[in-house]
Design brief:
This protein is α/β, with parallel strands linked by helices and 216 residues long. Helix content is 49%, strand content 17%. The chain is built from 8 helices and 7 strands; from the N terminus they run αβαβαβααββαββαα. The strands form 2 sheets. The protein has a 5-stranded mixed beta sheet with strand order 2-1-3-4-5, sandwiched between helices. It has a two-stranded antiparallel sheet with strand order 6-7. β4 and β5 form a beta hairpin. The radius of gyration is 27 Å and the shape is elongated. The model is unreliable at 9-14 (pLDDT under 50).
Amino acid sequence: MSEVIVIQSDLRKTEKQRLRVGAYARVSSNSLEQEDSFHNQVRYYTKYITSNPEWEFVDIYADEGITGTRQDKRDDFNRMIQDAEDGKLDLIVVKSISRFARNTVDCIRAVEKLNKLGVAVKFEDGGLNTSTPTDAAAIKVSSALAQEESQSIALNVRIGTRNKMRNGTYIQVNAPYGYSYKDKQLIINEEQAEVVRKIFTEYIAGKGTTEIAKML
């Protein structure tokens, strides 16, 4: 009698592999309003990823109070890139290109690096996905526009600050050394003013900043 060999099927191979998905969230200031926005983003993306049966939740990468124009200042962004290099991600979800990066060069480099690693980036605003070849040009244009917008906002803020300084209405979070705030007005802090006067006297006498710092 012939021997019958039963081959066991491997269900793991027939089952559709779920995409390993993470999300990136960022706000660029530490204000209470932005802090609330930051936590809302984290909650939203956690629910968004875990509710999709075809996705496997990996992590939420979130930078709070960090500018998008400098990649080297974003710890969680860099951690996300490292996880991609370590083969932990298939897809990254982010609200918009301006959240991902406002520096065109950094954005393009990051997208190209992730593409080489086989990791796609899905931008919710605009419905762009780096896994779609036709979206590549649109992403580059949108990234350039985001950088231009960021630079325009920064310039406007600087101009506004300078104008307030000229007319005496500029108020910092903390008063500069040598002054105190009283009724939103700067007044001289006499205790600290003695140190400020000493610094100016020594500087006028010819001493350098290093020498003055050592003296202090």
